[in-house]
From TrEMBL:
This is Protein NDRG2. The gene is NDRG2. Residues 347-361 have a biased composition (Low complexity). Residues 334-371 are annotated as: Disordered. It comes from Pan troglodytes. PANTHER family: N-MYC DOWNSTREAM REGULATED (PTHR11034).
Length: 371
């Protein structure tokens, strides 16, 4: 049956009648299909997987959608122990994220040997350093003929994208860095890592990087799921090589107002009690935003809302619809204002600024999101 369930004027519209004529809401907007047609609500995006040779080996990446005129691509890079699917699919499959992915082409880069079905590297293989992994990205963009990107990285992937942005600032319009640790391991960290390696397996050490000690102690179903994925991964030897490269990273040496800093808008995201929480909140870049970690996503609406405001601050998606989280906040604030009058109105303005409204400063460089 065509038409919205509550708004169609006739029970059985004529088969030749366009769907929007059978729905008052869709008829007023002259849509090509009904807003209640679940089969057409979320069209399947074109998905293609490519591999390209670089000076440091082959890299595999998956492209979703088609390039949009005058818009950058969203390029993601995953953390250690994960690939692009296990790291980013929960976020990009979230309902409120669909408006974003319909407006941007996405490029999901898998670190060498991390893609599904990847063969195990031979014994003695020299895995690229994180700096060399960052130097692979220009080959990907040249292959796709993309000029600029908005990077989204988690953990090791955040470090790689930050290094790439330092080396190629003209090609990066914005960065979302989640749980980034820009500092090299000191002697104490190195000694602790070596000592842990004597008593813990590689999967357990990686889990200690992905989750806090409180989360590991809880041994929730999610922890068990990732422990099983990493422990029984057919490319566990490759994961260990990626892990070693991460632990041998150099210091990014960020300086507030200095020569070594990111020139593009940056949104920092860190999970509560995350292993690298202190490193993120002390970065001399921009305001940090406490949000659930990306691969956990107990509340993906918060990260989606923050990302949408971030894009709007950069000048994209100006007419974007409000997320369900924004709508619920707006409704509650409006209700409070109607009850309390002018005194509540001032409080409403204060609360709305905390709920994600952009400040009047430089677009995209500062943003406040309450979580």
């Amino acid at each position: 049956m065509w038409g919205c369930r509550d708004n169609f004027p006739v029970s059985f519209p004529h088969p030749a009648r366009p769907p929007w004529r059978s729905c008052r809401r869709c008829r007023s907007q002259r849509r090509s299909h009904c807003c209640q047609d679940r089969r057409l609500r979320r069209p399947r995006l074109l998905e293609t997987t490519h591999s390209v040779e670089t000076p440091y080996g082959s890299v595999t990446f998956t492209v979703y959608g088609t390039p949009k005129p005058k818009r950058p691509a969203i390029l993601t890079y995953h953390d250690v122990g994960l690939n692009y699917k296990s790291c980013f699919q929960p976020l990009f499959q979230f309902e409120d994220m669909q408006e974003i992915i319909q407006n941007f082409v996405r490029v999901h880069v898998d670190a060498p040997g991390m893609e599904e079905g990847a063969p195990v590297f031979p014994l003695g293989y020299q895995y690229p350093s994180l700096d060399q992994l960052a130097d692979m990205i220009p080959c990907v963009l040249q292959y796709l003929n993309f000029s600029t990107i908005i990077g989204v990285g988690v953990g090791a992937g955040a470090y790689i994208l930050a290094r790439y942005a330092l080396n190629h600032p003209d090609t990066v319009e914005g960065l979302v860095l989640i749980n980034i640790d820009p500092n090299a391991k000191g002697w104490m960290d190195w000694a602790a890592h070596k000592l842990t390696g004597l008593t813990s397996s590689i999967p357990e050490m990686i889990l200690g990087h992905l989750f806090s000690q409180e989360e590991l102690s809880g041994n929730s179903e999610l922890i068990q799921k990732y422990r099983n994925i990493i422990t029984h991964a057919p490319n566990l030897d490759n994961i260990e090589l990626y892990w070693n490269s991460y632990n041998n990273r150099r210091d990014l040496n960020f300086e507030r107002g200095g020569d070594i800093t990111l020139k593009c808008p940056v949104m920092l995201v860190v999970g509560d009690q995350a292993p690298h929480e202190d490193a993120v909140v002390t970065l001399p870049l921009t305001s940090s935003h406490r949000l659930p970690r990306l691969f956990l996503l107990p509340q993906p609406g918060k990260l989606t809302e923050a990302f949408k405001y971030f894009l709007q601050g950069m000048g994209y998606m100006a007419s974007s619809c409000m997320t369900r989280l924004s709508r619920s906040r707006t409704a509650s604030l409006t209700s409070a204002a109607s009850v309390d009058g002018n005194r509540s109105r001032s409080r409403t303005l204060s609360q709305s600024s905390e709920s994600g409204t952009l400040s009047s400063g430089p677009p995209g460089h500062t943003m406040e999101v309450s979580c």
